């Protein structure tokens, strides 16, 4: 444990109920209700505590989508439009604004992708607003024998305005100036590469995903992050198993930590090993175990965490989909 602190145990529950409706061939609408703290965009987990208090429920998606053949345009509280890993975007973040997703399939079986988004982060009545403009290009290969690969390159430009009244949950472990503003600007260059090998068997595909990000707007040398994940197996049918290992490193201002993963207690300035195991006992159910083994990357930015202590977080989840 960190600095000799005792181990901590917690119980959490998570619920998501979403629906989409095709108004016509041109227009689709969608919405989703979730549990969790509505002030935290990175998690729908609800802590079981507080003397049996009721769970918070909120809308984390409410959008309209325009379908124009290969182009889809969405507006509102929208699903995440980018190919991503949790190094940069937590899987529970659903931006608010406008997105466009274009996909051009090729006769060979491959496809070209182009995604863009205007993310309305915060509106201020008297101060300056905060927003993000991002774009991503990608390519998905056809099947090349037993191999298949995909690649994506993105650029995200954040314009952070007035932070008065902001919840500390938003900046987390990014570096701040004495006046409470971010030390760095955030101009993220992000590259994601995936490779899949299906030569072992249908039940045991092998998947590698790598992600590299650099904040070109950082006012510190702590501007880089990367991650690599290796997955063996699948979770499609009863009796399926999947095993995974990942390593990730993110320096203090490598990413905008308000929207990066919340898997561990350190939002940035960490190095982390991840071990996972998933099993499908029956249709639409998964038992999942994940072990995060992590520590601060740079002692200068460790804060209240001991820079020499490896910390451990183990999650056991039972998931039901319908």
Write a brief structural summary.
The protein is 1% helix and 50% strand.
Q: Which shape, going by the Cα principal axes?
A: globular
Structural class: mainly beta
Could you give the count of β-strands? 17
Strand order of the largest sheet: 2-3-5-6-7-8-9-10-11-12-13-14-15-16-17
| Main beta-sheet strand count, sense and barrel state | 15 strands, antiparallel
Q: Give start-end ranges of low-pLDDT stretches.
A: none
The topology string of helices and strands comes to EEEEEEEEEEHEEEEEEE
Number of H- or I-type helical stretches? 1
Helix content bin? under 10%
The percentage of residues in β strands lies in over 45%
Please tell me the overall pLDDT. 91
Rg (CA only): 20 Å
First-residue to last-residue Cα separation: 38 Å
Overview of the structural elements:
This protein is mainly β and 322 residues long. It is built from one helix and 17 strands. The protein has one helix at residues 168-171; strands at 12-14, 16-22, 27-35, 45-47, 57-68, 71-77, 96-105, 111-122, 130-140, 147-159, 187-197, 206-215, 224-233, 241-250, 270-279, 285-296, 311-320. Strands 2-3-5-6-7-8-9-10-11-12-13-14-15-16-17 form a 15-stranded antiparallel sheet, with no helix packed on it. Strands 1-4 form a two-stranded antiparallel sheet. The longest helix has 4 residues, at 168-171. It is globular, with a radius of gyration of 20 Å. It starts with 11 loop residues before the first strand and ends with a strand. The mean pLDDT is 91.
